[in-house]
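Discussion board: Methods & Data

I've been asked by a reviewer to show the raw model output for two of the constructs in my manuscript, not just the figures. I'm not sure how much to include, so I'm pasting the format here to get opinions. Each protein appears as its amino acid sequence followed by a line of discrete structure tokens. Is this the kind of thing reviewers expect to see in a supplement, or should I convert it first? Here is construct A:
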Amino acid sequence: MTTIREQDFIQSIADAFQFISYYHPIDYIKALGEAYEREKSAAAKDAMAQILVNSRMSAEGRRPICQDTGIAVVFLKIGMNVRWETQKGVAEMVNEGVRRAYTHPDNVLRASILADPAGTRRNTRDNTPAVIHTEVVLGDTVEIQIAAKGGGSENKSQFVMLNPSDSLVDWVLNTVPKMGAGWCPPGILGIGIGGTAEKAMLLAKQSLMAPIDIQALQARGPSNRLEELRLELYDKVNALGIGAQGLGGLTTVLDIKILDYPTHAVSLPVAMIPNCAATRHLHFVLDGSGPANLTPPSLEEWPQITWEAGTQARRVNLDQVTPEDFAQWQPGERLLLSGKMLTGRDAAHKRIADLFAQGQSLPEGLDFKNRFIYYVGPVDAVRDEVVGPAGPTTSTRMDKFTDMMLEKTGIIGMIGKAERGPQAIEAIKKYQAVYLMAVGGAGYLVSKAIRAAKVVAFPDLGMEAIHEFEVEDMPVTVAVDARGESVHETGPAKWRIHSQI
């Protein structure tokens, strides 16, 4: 009989979440490197280069790959012959490990978890509680799979109850384009088929824990129906032309993962959950000999890819730019931003809207007029950092506030991740503003462009407080120009046609 000691278990959970915060799985890095070499779209290739360079920087600096360090997900398979040396329940020990990981002083991770989700939405400050799935199985070990699941990709999760005669492939191909690019492709799609509604969702999430192996499957050929489906969907999803960050290109997914389970005769439950460019998961086993021994990957595993803004990029001084200036910018054009910008995302926008609804003014010292706002919730700084990783959040969540912000605050530009919806694009066109896109999954790289940072409003919102950043050569792409043309519409359309030629 194996004895698992409390401190070994807690330490293993803590070490594992720290580990995945700065080390991509090597299978992902290799697959993305190969996709980078194949890519023909200049915009998508640039985005992939930023993700790969960011990944290596995070591994070297041991700082988060992405500012969204995720909700902690833990799958446990506990052997029936295991004995525990502890006064805590298993969930208590998991949460203590998560707490230690996310508050580690050398690598503080962003606390994103809110209690009372339908009410006060109060930040728990240590990213607990985790989402825990437990099985009791034969054996004398504890098998653990962990993942840090970012909100941008989790929000794009899909579920449907198809009729048994319906086409699963058609549903996937109709659904993926509607998900937009907020899940930060290129990534992996996990699909669960069968069981009940909740079982299908769990299967989809579990499938994402497996290593990328689609190239090996292509080489040997399928041996069952699920492998046939994987290959078919891999080819057909990539042929949609969505591409890296939704900019249009040859690679949207690096793999398709599928798990199934028997289901009712009249049912065909199907769940689909994407994993983003900040794919983070780890598998290890405790056998009673001590905490898990996690071996860092060699930096030689990363492809030798460099990224530079290039001479083609337009340099922009945010302290002097005018609407007349950015009226000349073109969708897809690359910019390097320098100067001061304000930040703000969901909670800050909601608070601003509430102030206006109550006839109140903005807090003293908060002035958006003729300025740009960056949709970001940064990681806290450590050591000599100005700010921790500070990549963009999904911009569509701010769409319903865009008209208000342009009309009442005087902002002239926005910076975020992925596409804007029709409501926001109409407001951008109406006020002749502009929307710029930074690369999701490159939060550490982006943070290196931030030279100064301070909180200027709503400090109680934590990572969602409004900051003022001073940046130097921050890389962005013009995503929606002052005329309302969106690169997230024109780019994929071009590459969808290209893929079919």
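Construct B, same format:
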Amino acid sequence: MNKVKSYLVFAILQIIANVSAAEKYSFLVVGDPQYLAEKSHSPKRLDPYSETANSRAIALLKSFSGRSIPEDHGGGEVSGKILGLINTGDLIDSADKNGANYPAMQKFEWERYKADYGLTGKDGLIPFPVYEVHGNHDGPQGDTFIVADIIERNRKRPGIVNRSDNGLHYSWNWGPLHCINLGIFAGEGGKRRNDHHYAPRSSLEFLREDLAREVGKSGRPVIISFHLHPNCPEYDWPKEDLEAFWKAIKAFNVLALFHGHTHGSPPNRIMWDGQQFSSKLAEGIEVFNPDDIGAAKTDPKTPGQGVGLLHGFLYVELIDKKGTKEDRLIVRSYATRDNWQSHDWHTTWNRNIKIPDRKN
């Protein structure tokens, strides 16, 4: 009997030890809020559908910690210690346009974005730091006042461990996870090339330098965020840049790529093996589209009605246990079909990963 009791005590102590040895790192990924002001030389408000989408989304993000997770999505609840929020670009709607009302609209939209999202988790409406990139609606060539302000924000952004020479691209760490933000897409050179669409602002040069400096041969897990989807037309993401991007990351422990731009609803995931993109690939890097979180507006063809009312975002958990056999990456999508009037969990992706043991 004493042997049975001893065994039970030992088993319980082992369970407690395993639980205490596990660390969870939780964060959110959103994209394309696309704050849209009313068309005016002196806007005082957002388009009503943009206002509804973004104000409801902010309220949801603000209260998201502690939300119950259904059993069919793994159970439990959202962490009370969300580390931060990655925003994959198209923060506002109007900075890819010129003249007429647009300069005033751009300023109004950008001020509203900053007031809502904040920067540090203490200066906006959501209680955790924000890590954004710019999208094509924020400045296709990366030369607008919005991009300049993102560069300035990067000087104050919490936890930054590395910034590019131009100040636009940056990286930080959440526990064992190394996170890299690369602007509109990963490409070489500062300017747009002939016969292509967007300026990469030397993001690929920064990526190579950052991986060598901050990750090296450590095997630590990496995530990378940018705006464009890597399987987009070559006019947007040049073929040579995409090939160079894969070459730069293939030797590293890259867990996931996060992008915006496509407004794919609900949020979705594909795999990339350097040659093809498909949801059916057995191996490769996971590429996640969080959908847009707020890109709704009044239908120009039917005044009084809205378009773009389907939205979503991602809740991500990195589970680091002793050893590397039970480490997990869990990505859950959260979505709405009615401009955030109603909303719920949608899809969960869950897989084994490898995180090197922490040093004592």
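Answer (T.O., handling editor elsewhere):
This is acceptable in a supplement if you add a one-line summary per construct. For B, something like: Residues 3-20 have pLDDT under 50 and may be disordered.
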